[in-house]
Amino acid sequence: MPHPSTLFRRKLKEGNPEKYQEYLLQQRERDQKRREKAKKEWEEGHHTRAQVEEHEAKKEAKRERERQRYEKKKKDCIRQTRRSIAKASTPATKEKKRPRDMSPNELRAHKSNMRQKQRQNLSRQKKTAIRAKERAKYHAKKVLQLQNMAAALPDRDTATATTPANTVRTRANSTIIQAETEKPRVGDYVKLKCIEKKNQKLVYAVVVDAPETGDFSVRFLAECGTAYAFADKEDVGLISTGPPDYYSWDILKSSEVSFVNRGHYFFKK
Questions:
Q1: I need a surface site. Which of 37, 78, 171, 210 has the fewest CB within 10 A?
Q2: Are 232 and 171 within 8 A, CB to CB?
Q3: 3-state helix, strand, coil in the chain (%, to 5)
Q4: At what angle do helices 4-15 and 17-44 cross, to 10 degrees?
Q5: Where are the domains of the chain?
Q6: With 0-12 CB in 10 A as exposed, 13-18 as middle and 19+ as buried, what is 38?
Q7: What is the pTM of this model?
Q8: Are the C-beta atoms of residues 177 and 237 closer than 8 Å to each other?
């Protein structure tokens, strides 16, 4: 049997709703004052370790009850009933096809959509790693394209008779590059010391052709602020592997080269 106070509230709610609302307001105000008084007494009083542990246990139990109440309310809100077969929301003609029943174009679009959904569900760290891997793959493809373009160009030696055996001039005839040490491989990034109007200057390049014997070809990199972009196709020059000189070129390590924007490379100092 319900408590007499419960019966009183039910009777008051059915018989006089306005008075019931006033009663609820009085109850809230009284409970608020009681909570504030208990909180003030707890803050001003001195407590033993056992009392503090009991107080924390009560607070944790209250938080757990609130959490369970929230989960129950959330589950009730998203509850769905089993859809009746007789009341299908979409006609049979609009049902999704199975992958094995799709045409090649539909299957390609379906797989692309699935990959996009899978990518959206990944964590931020995983997305960053995938983007870095794709950028590295893209730049490796660009380097391969540049190598193929350089291989398709006609061989041309811009060096003059007065130029030493280990030097070569660019098309502007203003930069003399001198090389020493072991010859690099295709795809290596090289830092070249050169002479331009009696001034030393560093020029960055990528090796596009390195035969077993003879000269190797590089693609010069045009300076653009803090980055270096690939120059025109005409800037493919030959560097002789003649005797050492006091000017040299250095092969850059992979740790000294980092990709920035698309098609650009940044060389760390």
A1: 78
A2: no
A3: 50, 20, 30
A4: 130
A5: 1-26, 152-267
A6: exposed
A7: 0.27
A8: yes
Rounded CA separation 195/177 (Å): 7
Q: How far is CA 210 from CA 81, 160, 162, 240, in A?
A: 71, 22, 25, 11
Sole residue written with tokens 């190598």 = 147
231: left (phi over 0), alpha (psi -120 to 50) or beta: beta
- Report phi then psi at 59, rounded to 5: -65, -40
Residue 76 neighbours by CB distance under 10 Å? 8
DSSP classification of residue 70: H
Q: Read out DSSP for 91-136? A: -GGGSPPPGGGS-HHHHHHHHHHHHHHHHHTS-HHHHHHHHHHHHH
Question: What's the rounded mean pLDDT across residues 61-73?
Answer: 89
**Is there a contact between 220 and 237 (Cβ–Cβ < 8 Å)?**
yes
Tokens of 72: 């129950």
pLDDT one-digit tens code per residue, 119-178 = 888 888 888 988 899 999 998 888 888 777 766 655 444 433 343 333 333 333 333 344
Q: Which residues pair with 265 in a beta bridge?
A: 228, 259
For residues 139 and 76, give the distance between their C-alpha atoms in angstroms, rounded to a whole number: 52
Q: What is the three-class DSSP state of 228? A: strand
Residues 253/264, Cβ–Cβ less than 8 Å: no
Phi-psi category of residue 91: left, alpha or beta, with phi > 0 → left and psi -120 to 50 → alpha: beta
Q: How is residue 68 written in tokens?
A: 């369970």
